[in-house]
């Protein structure tokens, strides 16, 4: 296959994929009501080892679920908590509002990213509570009261942890909850201790859930956040599943029992994850309540005899998609929460590419130069394939006069022309499909790296040099897209034209640098930097191969003689 045709094929593949991504976003963007007050609903759920019970599936905008039984006559006051990285508003069982203090909304801005919110249009919360069984009273996520009525907590200088205690008491049963925050961490530990001082057994089970009104996202190439997966994901540590908001319940009900595992709601750069206790079972389910979608882990169930106690713990991650920090939690399969792709092969490739990129960053300390370093390593890994490609290109370029002579000799006799071409390839030991193999890995790597660079919060607001202040945003002055177009133009100049290419195809080829320049102008600067570095190294490699092979007559080369 001629190199020019391969370049054309590769270019149109990239254009087609990018256009398909854009079309998909335009037709799949969820529409969110500005303010809707739905009717509260309850859904029967079954927990392993427990009898059926009714569990509040979600506290939704405009209406909070009331506690089943609580020692306080009024709804508990919200508690304000502040650490070095989080500012949280919670009421014992609901994380009503969370600000990420280390992540400004905009580059150079002062307002932090708000991940959880109680506002109708942006409603998004993590909740945990209990459901009673067999007539036992239990607190749902709105049923806990802060110990001592305290409403302000702040991590003290020099302290590593901050404990916020809550309590629920009814009929001799006490559930003591401690929410622990840790310095420098976005992981919050929630520990519930149930003690029964009554005269009858107490039965109930715990639930953890994430509830969100699907956000309305701006679509288009200038808004890379619209290409990130937004919905619910979950895993039992081995198997991964996900459901986007746009067809949340269209895929059918979910009723999966997991041991440990996790459930999450990811978005561009940030994520919330409930991680139940590793040795306890729960049942994952999805539900819709008015405009809000939720994913919940129900269980385990407990029967606490008089004079006995039971405990259960969970961890909530509410923060960035920080690969290193999430890995440090030691949760099996949690790496898939950073959704590089719905397909395992591309997801694992993306994980590997980011691992390599982060190792390079550990040595260089700059994400932009790390991307260039990644290009060097990938070029080395693909050198045998690309070497064969450029060698084939160089030899094809040298054969252009002889191929033109064959075209003139045989004219419109395509069959004889093809036979003569094949004989020429055989004589000169040219593999006409020598350039095909590199196209496949290059396309796969490019598309996978798009997700890696778009999803990696480590690159958010990360500068490279000069005018590039955010590698996840577009180049503000379009310098990199213009450089890429120039590199493509010079690469085309060195690439021999395909035999018999008609004028229309030639015009298409000449237009490709401009087309790619326009497309890349709206993609993250980090991805364009990768493409520029990859194209520049390819141009240098191709120039060298042309000098090595094209300018030297190989043994046995002879001029084609006309009969």
From TrEMBL:
Membrane spanning stretches: 367-388, 430-453, 511-533
InterPro entries: Membr_insert_YidC, Membr_insert_YidC_N, YidC/ALB3/OXA1/COX18, YidC/Oxa/ALB_C, YidC_ALB_C, YidC_periplasmic_sf
GO BP field: protein insertion into membrane; protein transport
Gene3D superfamilies: 2.70.98.90
Residue ranges of every copy of the Membrane insertase YidC/Oxa/ALB C-terminal domain listed in the record: 367-545
Keywords: Cell membrane, Chaperone, Membrane, Protein transport, Transmembrane, Transmembrane helix, Transport
Residue span, Membrane insertase YidC N-terminal domain: 79-356
GO molecular function: membrane insertase activity
Pfam families: 60KD_IMP (PF02096), YidC_periplas (PF14849)
Chief location bin: membrane
Subcellular location: Cell inner membrane; Cell membrane
Domain of life: Bacteria
Membrane topology: Multi-pass membrane protein
One GO term describing the cellular component: plasma membrane
Family: Belongs to the OXA1/ALB3/YidC family. Type 1 subfamily.
Functional note: Required for the insertion and/or proper folding and/or complex formation of integral membrane proteins into the membrane. Involved in integration of membrane proteins that insert both dependently and independently of the Sec translocase complex, as well as at least some lipoproteins. Aids folding of multispanning membrane proteins.
Protein name per UniProt: Membrane protein insertase YidC
Natural source organism: Solilutibacter silvestris
């Amino acid at each position: 296959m001629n190199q020019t045709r391969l370049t054309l094929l590769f270019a149109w593949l990239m254009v087609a994929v990018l256009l398909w991504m854009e079309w998909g976003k335009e037709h799949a963007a969820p529409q969110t009501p500005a303010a809707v007050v739905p009717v509260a609903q309850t859904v029967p759920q079954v927990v392993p080892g427990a009898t059926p019970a009714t569990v509040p599936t979600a506290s939704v905008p405009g209406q909070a679920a009331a506690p089943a039984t609580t020692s306080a006559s009024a709804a508990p006051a919200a508690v304000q908590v502040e650490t070095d990285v989080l500012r949280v508003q919670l009421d014992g069982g609901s994380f009503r509002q969370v600000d990420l203090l280390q992540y400004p909304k905009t580059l150079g801005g002062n307002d932090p990213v708000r991940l959880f919110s109680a506002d109708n249009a942006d409603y998004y919360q993590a909740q945990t509570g209990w459901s009673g069984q067999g007539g036992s009273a239990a607190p749902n996520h709105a049923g806990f009261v802060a110990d001592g009525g305290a409403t302000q907590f702040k991590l003290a200088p020099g302290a590593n942890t901050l404990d916020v205690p809550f309590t629920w008491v009814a009929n001799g049963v006490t559930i003591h909850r401690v929410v622990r925050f840790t310095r420098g961490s976005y992981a919050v530990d929630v520990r519930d201790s149930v003690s029964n001082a009554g005269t009858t057994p107490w039965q109930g089970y715990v639930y953890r859930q994430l509830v969100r009104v699907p956000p309305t996202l701006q679509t288009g190439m200038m808004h890379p956040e619209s290409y990130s997966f937004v919905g619910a994901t979950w895993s039992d540590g081995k198997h991964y599943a996900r459901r986007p908001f746009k067809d949340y319940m269209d895929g059918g009900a979910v009723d999966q029992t997991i041991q440990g595992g996790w459930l999450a709601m990811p978005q561009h750069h940030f994520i919330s994850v409930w991680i139940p206790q590793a040795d306890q079972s729960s049942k994952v389910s999805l539900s819709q309540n008015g405009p809000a979608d939720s994913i919940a882990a129900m269980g385990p169930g407990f029967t606490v005899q008089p004079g006995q106690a039971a405990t259960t713990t969970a961890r909530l991650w509410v923060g960035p998609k920080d690969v290193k920090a999430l890995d440090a939690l030691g949760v099996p399969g949690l790496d898939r929460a950073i959704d590089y792709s719905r397909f395992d092969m591309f997801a694992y490739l993306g994980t590997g590419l980011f691992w390599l990129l982060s190792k390079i960053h550990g040595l260089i300390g700059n994400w932009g130069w790390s991307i260039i370093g990644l290009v060097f390593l990938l070029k080395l890994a693909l050198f045998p394939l690309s070497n064969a490609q450029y060698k084939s290109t160089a030899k094809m370029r040298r054969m252009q006069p002889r191929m033109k002579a064959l075209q003139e000799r045989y004219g419109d006799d395509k069959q004889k022309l093809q036979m003569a071409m094949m004989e020429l390839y055989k004589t000169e030991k040219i593999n006409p499909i020598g350039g095909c193999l590199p196209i496949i890995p290059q396309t796969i790597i490019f598309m996978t790296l798009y997700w890696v660079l778009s999803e990696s919060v480590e690159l958010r607001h990360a500068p490279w040099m000069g005018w590039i202040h955010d590698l996840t945003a577009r180049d503000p002055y379009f310098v990199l897209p213009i450089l890429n177009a120039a590199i493509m133009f010079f690469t085309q100049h060195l690439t021999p034209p395909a035999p018999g290419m008609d004028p229309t195809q030639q015009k298409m080829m000449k237009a490709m640098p401009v087309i790619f320049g326009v497309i890349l102008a709206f993609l993250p600067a980090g991805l364009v930097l990768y493409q520029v570095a990859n194209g520049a190294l390819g141009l240098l490699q191709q120039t060298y191969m042309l000098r090595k092979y094209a300018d030297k007559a190989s043994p046995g080369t002879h001029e084609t003689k006309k009969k």
